[in-house]
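Q: Sequence in, structure out?
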Amino acid sequence: MPTPTKGPRVGGGPAHERLILSNLATALFENDRITTTEAKAKRLRPLAERLITFAKRGDLAARRRVLAVVRDKGAVHRLFAEIAPDMAQREGGYTRITKIGARKGDNAPMAVIELVREPLSAKKATVKEAEAATKRAAKDAAAAPAEAAPAEEPTAAVEADEAAVSDAQADAPAVDLPEGAAPATTDGSAPEGYTVKGNASSKLYHEPDGQWYDQTVAEFWFKSAEDAEAAGFTKAGAKD
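A: Exactly. Output:
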């Protein structure tokens, strides 16, 4: 016997519940926010976030998994082309539920469930990049063989070379640069001649006329869209 789902059932039976949740998810992806009962919002939240996780993968198998639940192709296209790129920097918490009081008539508790599409703050993005760089450095240090040879007394030329290397390491980006890309500057501005923003985790690039260009924090820059595509990146919002 299958394990019962926690919480009250929505609708008269399992099939009816699936149809209700499918319609609620379709409306949520079309309008970004909907008003419904608190019980339905709580049941919709894990389903909607799971579908967004599939959409962030962006492949054909993920699209078919989403289409098995949401039958509206327009809502699915908007989920993959517009909503998923906004969630690229997030690792969860794609929805927000806000209680708004009781409904007149039956006094049912009501709530608003909405998509959290605001970009992450620069501080949070910087902290995540720093944590990723620390983990990579620890992994590289553990893999590197220990050198048992005694260190020689450094000369003036060696000290100058070491100072130059340390300066270069301090200015090095937190992510591995793709071919043809330039590192992001400390103040967030683009290097001269570079206008296309790149993102390592989502493998997407953003052009100046793109919808999410101003909200995106560049991890590195490309001179053109052709350079970004040559490095294996895909334009944000492009059709699959």
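The mean pLDDT is 79.
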